């Protein structure tokens, strides 16, 4: 018995509805294969922290993606799965995020015994810059940028809130602004202490010269430029940060597999198994979805 036009229509509709799922499975498989190949080339644990947010929106309302507690949980897990003598390569593409989550990741990176390398193909702003400072080497594209790490309280830079208190008589300042100024002073002090900890930790590895530490802290944390100010490779090198120019071409190939998302997708990804497990990734049987790897900020 042959198919009628109505039957063909429903078959076409079914195949059309399955196509996005098939494409998603294919891109996930290609990502895992690319990650595995890069790990084998570098003999390292590779972790991606990618926040695509340039045009992401919901019902026309812009949405932002940034470093979150979920991100820190997943990256800490990836670091725990990595033997102490295996290097870590962290690929960053992020506007920053929560201070708490960023500090947790940064502390885990500086405690890892083997070399930690951060790759920046495009930008690693704010908290992303803090993670870069926590590494032993920062490798950037010639046009990539870092950013200041000065704290923000709500929609306002902490340094700008303090400037208001300095410029106006206290009798003309409301209590809420005074409270915000007190919080701003504490926030700047906390960030400066943590950045100092990261930079001093690098001294035994000769990453940052001791005489450059205070000038780097001054440049990054005091709000002398806007929070979205792009710090170029030339400026970062002049500060004394250990920046190297020239990314492996495979980094660009990996980034091509992470285009601007059209819907929800994990932002951190790594091979979800202990590092020493070198079993090949096999195609998934039909009818079973490819397991989504853990991810984060």
UniProtKB/TrEMBL annotation:
Give start-end of the signal peptide. none
Q: Name one Pfam family in it.
A: SDH_protease
**Superkingdom, natural source:** Bacteria
What the entry lists under NCBIfam families is as follows: Clp_like_SDH
Report what the protein is called.
ClpP class periplasmic serine protease
Origin species, per record, is Nostoc favosum CHAB5714
